[in-house]
Amino acid sequence: MMASGALSENNPAPGPVCALKRTRMHREAGEVAESIARQQARNAALIGAVAGKLKRLAPRFIATCARGSSDHAATYAKYLFETRMGLAVCSFAPSVASLYATQTDMRAAVFIAISQSGRSPDLISASRLAKTGGACVVAVVNDEASPLASLAHHVVPIGAGPEISVAATKSCVGAMSALYHLCAKWRGDDAMLDALAALPQTLSQAWAADWPQALAALRRVRQALILSRGIGLAGAQEAALKLKETCMIQAEGFSSAEVRHGPMTIVGEEFPVLAIATFDAAQPSIDSVSREFMDCGARVLMAGEPLDAALCLPTPRARDSHLQPLVFLQAFYKFANALSCARGLDPDRPRNLSKVTQTV
Questions:
Q1: In which residue ranges of the chain is pLDDT below 50?
Q2: Is 138 left (phi over 0), alpha (psi -120 to 50) or beta?
C-alpha cells in the first residue's frame, strides 16, 4: 500500500529536470562546513566583545524576530538560551510593529533579529521599535550592509557568502552556529567552544551521508510529518519547510509532545513520519511517539539512531547535543535536493517564491 496522498502508479512523477550536483541548492548546502569554519575564525573576537557587553547588560529576557528559515533559527535560539543561559526567550511578532505600530516596552531585553537579507520591511520596523523601546538590538544577518545591520547595536555576521538558491541552507545553519557561538562566549563555556570547533568536521561527515531508502520512501508521497522535540524542534520545522519549498510535499513539523494534542490523528497506515534524534533528554519522548506511529502502521524514518522497525537514516552525532539540529540539517539538505530532483522538480526555482520576501 502506498503512503497517504501518494502519486498513483498510473500518474507517476515526471523524470528529473535538474542534474543533482548542478543545482545551486546542492552547491550552497555543500559549502556549509567550510562556511562555518570561516565564521568561527572571523567572529571569535567580535562575538567575544558582544558577549561581554551582554554580560554587563544582564538582560531579563530575550526576544527574537525572524521569518521563514530564519525563524527556525529563532526556535533554535529559544531552546539554546533558555536551557544554557536560563533566560526566557519569546518570539516577537513583526506585525505588532509593521501593521499595528504598537510601541512595546523592551527595557532590560535583548532583541535578536535574524535574517539572511536584512531587508524585509517588517523585520526592520520591528527592530527599530524594539530599539526605541529600550532593547539592545543584535542583528544576526548574512548581508552586513543591509538596513537591519545598520540600525542594530551589534551585528553578528552569518558570513555564509552569496546564497542564490531560493531555499535557504547555509544561511540557516550559519545563523544557528553564530547563535551557539554567542551563547558559548556569553556563558564563558570552554566545552561549548570545543564542541563548536569540532562542528565543521561533523558537518562534512553529515554531507557525505546518503539516504537512498528515504528517497524511495518519499518520492511519491504528498504529505509527511516531521517529528522531534526540544532543541530538535527547529530542525523539524526547517525540514518541513524545505519539503514544501523544494518537493511540494505538505509536510508539518511538530514536537513529539505537541503532536499528541490532535495532529497524530492524521497518521495511519503507510503515512510517512520522519523522526529526528536529539541524543538528549527529549529522546525517550521522540522514541515513544515513533513507536506509537509504527503500531498504527505508519512508515517511520529515524534520522540519527536505530529504533525498532523504523528505517534508520545514518546521521553523525555532534559533540554537543545542542549542535545536533545543525548536523541533521546538513544531511537533510542534501537529501531534500535529491528528492526534489527525483520528483521532477527544480529546487532552485520553487513555484510562487522569490529569494527576498518583502513582507510588511
A1: 1-17
A2: beta
